[in-house]
């Protein structure tokens, strides 16, 4: 249930970001966390998880009629995922820009996917694509108690 979404706007906007199994295997966790930290976003939740097939099927439910759906669910359950929630102004849209396009070969250099791969099935990262999917995905992957409210000391130097 979407019980904890009120007030997630402006500087409190939140998105669900995950380092996929291929990204974890390729040791990109630090690199991806570093990019979101450096940009000025706030880490609100983070865990390493082996996702169940059930959760992954729900996560990608909107793609259930696509030919790659089963393979995608299998790939996503092939190893641990680093599931995260990041917060900040326009974090959903900016996170998508930082990721690049769905296919790494279509992604610009300096994006996460553009710098770290060549194939669509090995694109290292997931990020929510809208406010609705961010709400849905955060409540699917996290309990409310797993999200931390905390003050970042540099906030006044990131926002004026
Ligand atoms: P996104 O991850 O950029 O939001 P979606 O269209 O939501 O892209 O697709 C989810 C994931 O499914 C992609 O990240 C990619 O790993 C995989 N995928 C998308 N399109 C294809 C395809 O044509 N073949 C195989 N896998 C695909």
TrEMBL record:
Its EC number is 2.7.4.6. ATP binds at residues 20, 68, 96, 102, 113, 123. GO terms for molecular function: ATP binding; metal ion binding; nucleoside diphosphate kinase activity. Its cofactor is Mg(2+). It is an enzyme of class 2 (transferase). Pfam families: NDK. This is Nucleoside diphosphate kinase. SMART domains: NDK. The keyword Kinase applies. It is found in: Cell projection, Lamellipodium; Cell projection, Ruffle; Cytoplasm; Nucleus. Coiled coil: none annotated. Residues 12-149 form the Nucleoside diphosphate kinase-like domain. It comes from Neogobius melanostomus (round goby). Major role in the synthesis of nucleoside triphosphates other than ATP. The active site is at residue 126. PANTHER family: NUCLEOSIDE DIPHOSPHATE KINASE. Its main location: other. The lineage of its organism: Eukaryota, Metazoa, Chordata, Craniata, Vertebrata. It catalyses: a ribonucleoside 5'-diphosphate + ATP = a ribonucleoside 5'-triphosphate + ADP; a 2'-deoxyribonucleoside 5'-diphosphate + ATP = a 2'-deoxyribonucleoside 5'-triphosphate + ADP. Keywords: ATP-binding, Cell cycle, Cell projection, Cytoplasm, Kinase, Magnesium, Metal-binding, Nucleotide-binding, Nucleus, Signal, Transferase.
